[in-house]
Please model this.
Amino acid sequence: MIGRQLEHYTVVEHIGSGAMGVVYRARDDTLDRDVALKILPGGTLDPAARGRLRKEARALSRAAHPSIATVYDFATEGDLDFIVMELVPGETLTQRLAAGPLSDAEVLDLGQQLALGLAAAHAAGVIHRDVKPSNLKVTPDGRLKILDFGVALQAISDTETTRTASFAGHMAGTLPYMAPEQLRGADADVRSDVYGAGAVLYEMATGTRAFPERQEGPLFDAVLRRPVAPPRTIRPSLSPQIEACILKALEKDPDLRYQSARDLGRDLGAATASIPAIPLS
Model:
């Protein structure tokens, strides 16, 4: 694939792989800029799924928000479908969390960016379905960018217990971050994304997943039936207000959860007052 020309994009290097394709850095020869190309596996999407994918790419391209990686184009060449996106610098949240939990201030800052980015996408009619740390990138200047909106519509399994789960022929999410209703086979809605955001917030605040089980069966059971351990039992110094936001986002009953990502962002913003100010030197 390296060196291949797809329309007016020259593929330069492989930069990552996801549940539904491979991501490359490419050069836009028309506008003389670097972009990210997500190459979707040829022949795995039926015409209806391709139509939904194109529709969502168009909707997302209209959801302009600083926390959403911009979609520039959706195109087909031969048997390859590909999405052209903003090339986002920095590290994934997964990489960031390898060093341990984040400070309260970082949890609130990145959490608000995540919530408001999701709210903008929801307003455009796009549900992410797969909110998780590896789909979030933090730029060198501290901007959170949400990647891979609505791209994964059909399951491609891998060998890990964090593999993507599928119901009714479409992508439901990645198991440790999926809402209980998704595990039961219900369609995802905005509250499912809120749950995913809550799972990400939990990991940012504690350095561990809300449900750390590694085997699929116990993990399914935990997400469906077991209460999450309050974050402050893992990290006692965490702000109680942040803990309250996380626990509400992770309610198993979607009717008890935040009903919108904007509501989650509002409460995270209000919790900022609970963080002690850093004294000026």
